[in-house]
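The aim of this short unit is practical: by the end, you should be able to scan a pair of folded records and say something sensible about each. We start with the first protein, listed as its amino acid sequence and then its structure tokens.
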Amino acid sequence: MKKRTILALSVMLFVVVSIYTTVRADQTEEQEDDDNIVFIQAPNGTDMEKYYTYEINNDGPKTCTITSYTGEFYSNIIPETLEEYTVTRIGARAFKNVNKITGGLTLPSSLISIGDEAFSGCTLITSITLSSTTKTIGNKAFEGCTAIMKINLDNVESIGNEAFKGCSSMTGITSIIFTNKIRSIGSRAFEGCALPQIEFTSPTAPQVSNDTFEGYEGKVIIPQQDSEYMGQAWVGAYVKGVNKIGDLDGNGVVDANDASLVLERYKNESATKREIQIADIDRNGLLDANDASLILEIYKTNA
């Protein structure tokens, strides 16, 4: 009788354990499914706030700085708000070496500044879209972003040291044009950058270092040859292919050949907009004999 009772109790215990194990397994699987649903939604830009850490700023009401990203997946659009705070800054090293970011990256329209090394080593980003409010790019902010092909810097005022160092795929744009909004560019800012051309259109030169263009193999175009664009940083050995005012053949010096080319363009009425910008010394909107004479004067002065 005792054996039958023990056997019955053993069977009942086995059944209970089996049911409990099955329920726990189902609950665990359901929980894992729930977790997966959260992460699957993340790349679509939903419910992303929980994957960012941030600090509240002191420079404005209800604004914050993103300090890091903790999610398993990533949206290519960084949110403009985290909870009730507007994102105005991305902090130092916030996304450094985060290779979950792939393709084009759109930054918040409210963004004012990008901190030092903020996206350094993000090797899968192919383009950056900045808003008109973004004024400052920190030191090494995009260093080693080897897949970036294009970025807009139209409204940026300050670029830090080595900001775009090693951006070796930046061939998706022909030229970056800096207007009078740019104020300063740091040391080796474009070293190893594949950007074909950098152009400055403002008569007021931004502050640069003697090695700002060191390691940059593209062309730098400056609008005029005067005190604003003089010195080693602009016309020294570090700059490859600088177009000085009057240097129509682009050989780095203003000489008699440039004057001859101006006369040829004048005779044939064949000057391009770019050539007019470079060699229209008297700034009357065309290339003519007076420009040729002025170029000869420059040549004579510098000889």
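Turning to the second protein, read its sequence before its tokens, just as you did above.
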Amino acid sequence: MIRNWRWPIIMALLAWPAVTLRLGVWNTAQSVETVLYGLAIVSAAFLLTWCAEAAERDIPRTLALAGLALVAVLPEYAVDVLFAWKAGKDPSYAAYATANMTGSNRLLIGIGWATVVGIFWLRSRGNLLKLAESHRVEVGILTVATIYSFIIPLRGGITLFDAAFLVGLFGVYVYLASRGEIEEESDIVGPAEIIANLPMNQRRITVLAMFLYAGAAILIAAEPFADGLISTGAQFGIDEFLLVQWVAPLASEFPEFLVAGLLAWRMRPDAALGALVSSTVNQWTLLIGCLPIAYAISSGTIDPLPTDSRQIAEVLLTSSMGLMGVVLLINLRLSLLETIALAGLFAAQFLTPPALISREIFALAFLALAAVFLVRQLLDMRQYVGVDPEEEPH
């Protein structure tokens, strides 16, 4: 019996060095601490993957992936909401809150989605990753959130009205996700299969306990892991703003990337990409909505979380990239070529100076590509849905 549970037990135990470090039981060099905090996040990601797969026996897959995405994105919430809270006392942190949010969203789409499609291609040599119909919920909500995000730069800040709309939109997403179908049987193996085959009550308690344990481990390890990476980057003379925008989000998004990568490697690319799309929904709705709330409570005002000209350009660029992403997923398919175009344009940003004009140019480039792919998607839908029967392929 214990032998069957050896991997969940090992992964659970790997989080404890980080926990004891955070509690001040012992101390070591920062580089070692960073590694141990990273190890805790990795082990928690494995636990999340297993219990999310097992949870599909009791709740709809869409809701299971939404829960997985919400727990996996906790590090990003912890870091970004902390910046927003500090901004209420020190306005200089407002730029960091927006920078962290925009960087994390672009990383999620530019690296996360591309990683899943890349692993899918390596494992199957397939050029087209298809999402199940149940993922129309995520794509639809993400489309609404992305279109709404273009309004934020026009106001010069993220307001409590934005918070109300986006948090409400997240509530709609959870409600719609809960109405999906439960899969009695699924192709799960390994530790997830052992958990799924437990008696119903025991399975539900186990899954809930693993979710809570993994979520707690991620929350404990996320901030010091990100701080450790930032400190390491600062030692090499990297600009602090860029560290906050890219290094900290890369660290806090790591659980999501790892969970999705594990699912894709186990030949569950639909679940992998679905989890990342759900994470994107989380960040475009609940995360952004939490920022002005944290700022308002900390500052004691109802003023919006301020954004300067640089942050307005960053939000516009992030929204434009997000729009291209949702356009590519309209037909619930993501091809290797589309992924290369999306990830390639994202990577090209790092080859140019971080000037406002370059951000605006890239935003226009994403919008132009989104328009091109939208026309192609509509033509494909017209061909296969049968808008013009005389032109249907035979």
